[in-house]
Amino acid sequence: MRKSLLLASAGLLVAAGPALGQTSGRGNEITEVVVTAAPFVVSLDSVTTSVDVLTRDDLDTANAGGLGEALSDLPGVRSSFFGPGASRPVIRGLAGPRVLVLTNGVGMVDASALSPDHQVAVDPQEARRIEVLRGPAALAYGGSAIGGVVNVIDDRIAETPVDGIEGRVFGAISSVDTGEMASGALKAGTGPWVFSLDALRRQTEDYDVPTGAESRRQLVAEGEEYLGPQSGQVENTAVTIDSYGAGLSYVGEAGFLGLAVKQTDSRYGVPGHAHEHGHDDDHDDDHDHDEDHDEDDHGEEEGVRIDLKQTRYDLRGGMNLALGPFERVRVSGGYADYEHVEIEDGAPATRFLSEGWEGRLELVQAERDGWQGAVGVQALTRDFDAQGDEAYVPAVEIAEAGVFTLQRLDRDSWGVEGGLRFDRRSLETAAVKAEFDNVSASFGAFLRPAPGWYAGFSLSRTARAPTEAELFAEGAHIATRAFEVGNPNLDSEVSYALDATLHYDGGPWDADLHAFAVRYEGFIDLRPTGLEDAESELGVFTYQQTDAEFWGGEAEVAYRLWQDGDRSFTLEGAADYVRGDTDLGAPARIPPWSATGRAIFATGWWTGKLELRQVGEQPRVAEGELPTDGYRMINASVVVRPTDGFKVFLEGRNLNDAEAREHASFLKDLAPLPGRSFRLGVGYAF
Predict the structure, then answer these.
(1) Is 155 left (phi over 0), alpha (psi -120 to 50) or beta?
(2) Tens of pLDDT, residues 345-385
(3) Closest of 359, 394, 404 to residue 484, by C-alpha
(4) Spatial distance between the Cα atoms of 384 and 71, rounded to a whole number of angstroms
(5) 273-299 burial, b for 16+ CB within 10 Å, e for fewer?
(6) How many C-beta neighbours within 10 Å does residue 529 have?
(7) For the whole model, what pTM was predicted?
(8) Measuring CA to CA, which residue among 174, 223, 195, 228 is closest to residue 62?
(9) What would the DSSP string read from start to end of 8-68?
(10) 516 alpha carbon, distance to own chain's centre
């Protein structure tokens, strides 16, 4: 299989035409427009909250795996890491339904926010770019963005004309998981019509770790002997993803309109799942140790695997118009039919179904003396159902409608911005219906006191309606190792947030500093009751509301130590910290601090990077949660670009083979992060 993928990649490289250019890296995009920030133009160096943009070039060399892993190196962002098959971004300590994952500005219509073992139905290799907005500043997207927004932007619907043929191909192999990946995209234009085609395949086996899968703390807590570090594998972590899509758009002088379709097929193992599935009286009989693994007792048939399929259709367009104060209309919408089946002992056990659509229409105002603005409406409907052994949430019909406005005045040396949104959301089961009316608002101001300097702050009130699980759950949820009980009397969760931002770009220095403080009223938290469900033998947890406070910050600093023409040597540093408190105690799975230092040597045709990343210990834990030790990782990479558009890279991650456990993960004590890994990749843009 690996040989066939490499041959296919090589064939595409040979067949491709002459190179036209290479996508620039994140560091060269300081004036890039942040599409997710607003329907009108807002550049990356003028946003009042913390934003990162990953380009195509960044994504090729990002941490390999799912969406959470690809973004986990960013300050303030971690991965929920339920093995390499399922991961969502954790932003400033918040995860699940508080972090909104979008594709081209509309919802995923999947089940990834429901449970940490559910995969996001999009792969980073599908993206042209990914934008990450931290905090509740993305008012245009409603209360589900209370913790942040991740917008995966692809290129299936062209917005600009294409003359002839252009595209990209990329392939990589990795050592830690015997992994192989290939992806490609092609756009062909004739007159105003543009046709696009893209595909990817990623396949990995169980990944290697420098220690036993179960942590020392976990074994001690269970009264078992810790035998010291013993290299092995985290079993049942193989992943196979196939995704392919096509689009057709009409690009004229007045605007564009296009349609796209995408099919996602994914099969992945869920580590640690079978460990909790057994209910024998003798715990040792169910235990799965690397040192005494018995294939008959713990073979692959004992593991839980997920088979995920989604078919998605998208429409997107934009057109110039003259309608009073408005100069442009933008429309986007998506319909998806999603299904994933949890397979136990080779047979389907639980089926999750999600079908629905989401649409947005935005009217963009003409700029007048620095004043920009937009008004918009958004609506969605989604039918969710779960059937089988772990159907702990009943069938739910979800509907939401929202209207919003965003306004910004930029007078070069100073400016202000604000927004207002109203949402109505309903969730209805066969037995009960819950409705929520939410109002969200924000205000920000910024100064440019001197060349290169930018200072901004924003205040926001954001309201989030409870999810179907928080309201209606009642049953064993093996992924969280809890018998979850929802509360249909929950109110909306409301946050009051303050964000402060400082940018500096001058001479050899480039700095980006952010601080935040958030006060939650009615923070929805899953808390233990001290009871145990007799049938599942799992502890009973209920969703409760309490007050909470989160505060912290992120920092990124770069200093160009030396430059001679196109050669340079740069030192970079990044750090983040978040602390959460509730009236019921510390929230679960709050990431510890992290700090990263890099040394980068760049020439016109190759770039070398050496990185040291330190993650602190986390002793502040919720009831029933174990602390996590800190760890240090050494990473290095070399990217060679012998000609325009062509690149080869070699990277090593966790070169010191450290035991690293992601505190934000439910599986931190059962599945450490991968050990020492080498990855070789080749890409070509034409």
Answers:
(1) alpha
(2) 889 999 999 999 999 999 999 999 999 999 999 999 999 99
(3) 394
(4) 28
(5) bbbbbeeeeeeeebbbbbeeeeeeebe
(6) 12
(7) 0.90
(8) 174
(9) HHHHHHHHS------PPPGGG-TT-B-TTT-SS--BGGG-SS-EEEEEHHHHHHSPSSSHH
(10) 20
